[in-house]
Amino acid sequence: MRGSFYYKYIKSPSTKLVLYVLLIGIGYAYLYPLLYMITTSIMSVEDLVNPTIRWIPVHPTLSNYKLAWQVLEVSKSLLNSIYLSVVPALIQTFSTAIIAYGLQRFDIPLKRFWLVLVLATFLIPAQTTLVTKYMLFSKLKLVGTPLASFLPALFGQGIKSAIFILLFYNFFQMLPKTFDEAAELDGAGPLRIFWTIMLPLSIPALVTTFIFSLVWYWNETLVSGLILGNSIKTLPIALRDFIWRYAQMFPSTTGSSANRLNEGIRLAATFITILPLLITYLFLQRQFVESLERTGITGE
Amino acid sequence: MSKRLKAKTKRALVGYLFFSPWIIGFLLFTAYPFFYSLYLSFFKVRFTVSGVESTFVGFEFYKYAFRGDLTFPINFTNTITNIILSTPLIVIFALIVAILLNNKIKFRAFFRLLYFLPVVIISGPVVSELVENNAARIVDPGKYFIYQFFTTLPDRISFPFLYMFDNLVLILWFSGVQILFFLAGLQKISSSIYEAAKIDGANSWIIFWKITLPLIRPFILINTIYTIVDLASFANNSVNTSITQHMFDIDRPYSYSAALSWIYFVAVMAIIGVAFLILRKKD
């Protein structure tokens, strides 16, 4: 893409100082909940009730994690989470690419109308179709099965699909038409052109779509909580039901004071829930942050 | 001529073939649930052995939502107020951060990485755990003079400011995508414009108001709409509780929830409409 980005140079040292102080201050505010969560989650009950301890635990313990791990049923819900985010993300990546290919490359009649309609679907809050979606899936006998999440993704109606279609649309627009014209003269059909020319050239857009789709599917709890929630529990849904589940597993009448639910245990559970995402983010940081600039979602 | 026309028709057909999954999906998974919930909100349905019986009740559920229901008006106002107050704060904050990051600074990639982190980990249950366990409350605002000062003002004036203090971390956590959008927009402003302005003697303050802001305006509109939709669909909104709670009401299954969800839809569209009118290009 375009070669050099323009960044403003700042010469005066005092402006520079203000800038760094601001950036670090904002960074601290961003990190605060994470730091608080990590330190609190390793505090023992004595540390939690001690008002003089704010950051550094005196009696650090991992027992909160042990309890949280049991209540979240991590070995099961982690697999569910991976399954219910990787598969729909893959499906959504390919379906939105194909849809955008059809919309962008073939001068179809009513092209503008369809594009506007695709973007209009983005504006509908999930709640508006929640009730009737549930009715639809229960009529199709799909409630509680992964297909209830995969089918909409396959037909371009997954989580924020409109954004991904727009992203591919803009990306394909940047690819010169001469490539596919040359291939067409050589006798390649449209599907072949899509598969052997468009897709390999669109790897940045594919990667962006996949990773964003992945985290959005992972974190979605409103629709999946209702349609899948009770039979396939993902980590975030297990976290949503944490208090209830905890009370079931450790009734307060039998539990010792060490087992009573406290913020240390709850924040340990929260940290377990986001840990897989944190690890993914650290590995794929460049793809996450630079992707939006590279794929030209913002239009050229 | 006719051969060219034929080739053109064929191309259009192939295009529609690729696009058709979206049309099918749209009809089945978006348009049908969308309009069916509108239909349901006007009918009382009964599920019997022979099928579904529905009787038209007009605006009864809509009236009940505001006059009979005890919790919905509260949940609804809370959610809508949250969207109206948070959106401008998020957009302005994202713009400021993007402008800060658009300077030649050290560790630029690190800061960008940090500010984008919440986008990856934010989900309904995670946010509610953080809020309920005080992890989202960065400072006890009560200790600060400025907070005390605002509490002495009449409610109506102080409310937005106190709201901002109380929800500071959440506002930051919702602005990751918007920061990247603004950064991409700022990168598009050609450096020659800035240089020309500087030669003409404009300082940074003038450059911001006269050059950056007008050129970034389309991005402000996109980000505002994105923010509204993002906040409106978030899993923690109290309006969701109302909608899901009433789904299986014995005397009015689904219908009342459908009416609530349409009230919410109209309200969110109204907010987007107002935002659009304020921010659109005035030529």
Distance between the termini of chain B: 43 Å
Largest sheet of chain A: none
CATH topology of the largest domain in chain A: MetI-like fold
Alpha-carbon Rg of chain B, integer: 25 Å
Describe this entry's structure for a reader.
The complex is a heterodimer of chains A (300) and B (283). With 300 residues, chain A is an all-alpha fold. Chain A has two domains: 13-72 and 241-285, no CATH class; 74-234, MetI-like fold. In chain A, 71% of the residues lie in helices and 0% in strands. Chain A is built from 16 helices and no strands. Chain A has helices spanning 13-41, 45-49, 63-72, 74-105, 111-123, 126-139, 147-154, 161-174, 178-185, 190-201, 203-219, 222-227, 235-240, 242-249, 263-283, 285-294. The model of chain A has no long low-confidence stretch (mean pLDDT 86). Chain B has two domains: 2-60, no CATH class; 68-279, MetI-like fold (Orthogonal Bundle), CATH 1.10.3720.10. Helices cover 74% and strands 4% of the residues of chain B. Chain B has helices spanning 2-40, 60-67, 72-101, 108-121, 124-132, 145-152, 155-166, 168-173, 176-188, 191-199, 204-232, 238-245, 255-279, and strands at residues 43-48, 51-56. In chain B, a hairpin with a 2-residue loop joins β1 and β2 (51-56). The model of chain B has no long low-confidence stretch (mean pLDDT 86). The chains are: A mainly alpha (300), B mainly alpha (283). Chains A and B meet through α1, α4, α5, α6 and α7 of A and α1, α3, α4, α5 and α8 of B.
Summarize the SSE layout with pairings.
The complex is a heterodimer of chains A (300) and B (283).
Chain A: H1 13-41, H2 45-49, H3 63-72, H4 74-105, H5 111-123, H6 126-139, H7 147-154, H8 161-174, H9 178-185, H10 190-201, H11 203-219, H12 222-227, H13 235-240, H14 242-249, H15 263-283, H16 285-294
Helix pairs in contact in A: 1-15, 3-15, 4-7, 4-8, 4-11, 5-8, 9-10, 11-16
Chain B: H1 2-40, E1 43-48, E2 51-56, H2 60-67, H3 72-101, H4 108-121, H5 124-132, H6 145-152, H7 155-166, H8 168-173, H9 176-188, H10 191-199, H11 204-232, H12 238-245, H13 255-279
